[in-house]
Write a structure and sequence with these properties.
The chain is 39% helix and 23% strand. The protein is α/β, with parallel strands linked by helices and 211 residues long. Helix 6 (132-144) runs parallel beside helix 8 (170-190). Bound molecules: S-adenosylmethionine (SAM).
């Protein structure tokens, strides 16, 4: 991970902490865990990466893709998208195999003009920073655009939520309870696996849902 990458991420966190939701880009270990089921893919697949940041997950996803696969990368922050665009142009890890279609889009996921459904959705938006109605919208949208049998993965930091909960006023606590209940309802229907990644700041759960 370069200093430029970390500095840019930190600046964007400082200027826009609700959307960015983390002080550092994720580790390679967390990227690999998020793409764990994608790594077992069979045949051509469509992949969506939601909330790419500086490309910590993207660089783990690209080498897994082969001729006939496609990847849509959606990032709301124009500075992070521009940085990621440079990485696609200059860094070997971001060079995809022949026949792989990669589409990097600077957009709000809620406004993205979706076409069809995906086999894999790798999602790292900071859900717990959003109000409950938005959490519901994001998750409904993602499950709607996931193919039957497709796999959705999302990350959830360990400890941070609990610390924030106990340090928050009652109205924030009520929102956090509501968000947890929304995620739990989806998880009860779809979750089939989860794994912990200690090699990340902070340590993180990766949850896997199948439609
Ligand atoms: C926690 S960071 C994860 C970044 C990267 N995947 C990583 O693991 O280092 C969340 C990312 O989601 C992006 N994001 C937040 N809300 C978004 C939205 N509505 N649409 C698209 N991207 C969004 C943020 O700008 C940020 O880059």
């Amino acid at each position: 991970m370069t200093l430029k990458n970390q500095q840019l991420f930190w600046q964007q966190f400082r200027d826009n902490f609700v959307h960015v939701g983390a002080v550092l880009p994720s580790s390679p270990a967390l990227g690999r865990a998020s793409a764990f089921y994608l790594a077992q893919k069979q045949g051509p697949v469509r992949v969506l990466e939601a909330g790419a940041g500086t490309g910590a997950f993207t660089r783990e996803i690209i080498p897994l893709l082969a001729d006939g696969d496609s990847l849509d990368v959606v990032e709301i922050n124009p500075h992070l998208t521009a940085y990621l665009h440079q990485r696609f142009q200059h860094e070997p890890q971001f060079k995809s195999s022949q026949g792989v279609k990669v589409h990097l889009v600077n957009a709000d996921l809620l406004q993205f003009p979706f076409v069809g459904q995906y086999d894999y959705i790798i999602f790292s938006l900071p859900l717990t920073n959003f109000p409950p109605f938005l959490v519901q919208q994001f998750l409904e949208l993602m499950m709607h655009h996931l193919k039957p049998n497709g796999v959705f993965s999302y990350v959830k930091y360990i400890f941070i939520g609990q610390v924030k909960y106990y340090a928050s006023p009652n109205d924030t606590k009520a929102n956090m309870d509501e968000t947890r209940a929304i995620i739990q309802t989806f998880a009860q229907q779809y979750q089939f696996d989860r794994r912990v990644v200690m090699a990340n700041v902070p340590p993180t759960w990766v949850h896997y849902w199948r439609k």
